[in-house]
């Protein structure tokens, strides 16, 4: 399992790389809302002041065993760039098999 915060942090890093790759490209895409549909498990500790943690269930055999305790959540994220008023633009480059 992976912490939900880690999934979002990895997504942010991928988007930042795509934004940098868009600089100077003729074809770019405006970045709109991002929808995530995840299977999660909640973890609560019995300690005073403990927080609830969300764990994203990874696909595979292990996920099948825990399916009874997993919950599905959907998140819609609207990415913004600090200090920017223009929409975010990303680009991609076709691989050799996509040309």
TrEMBL record:
InterPro entries: Trypco2. Pfam families: Trypco2 (PF19631). Residues 2-79 form the Trypsin-co-occurring domain. This is Trypsin-co-occurring domain-containing protein. It comes from Streptomyces caelestis.
């Amino acid at each position: 399992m992976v912490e939900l915060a880690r999934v979002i942090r990895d997504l942010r890093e991928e988007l930042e790389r795509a934004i940098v790759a868009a600089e100077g490209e003729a074809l770019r895409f405006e970045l709109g809302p991002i929808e995530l549909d995840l299977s999660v498990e909640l973890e609560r500790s019995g300690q005073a002041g403990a927080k609830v943690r969300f764990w994203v269930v990874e696909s595979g055999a292990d996920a099948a065993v825990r399916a009874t305790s997993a919950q599905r959540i959907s998140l819609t994220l609207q990415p913004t760039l600090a200090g920017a008023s223009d929409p975010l633009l990303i680009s991609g480059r076709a691989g050799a098999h996509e040309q």
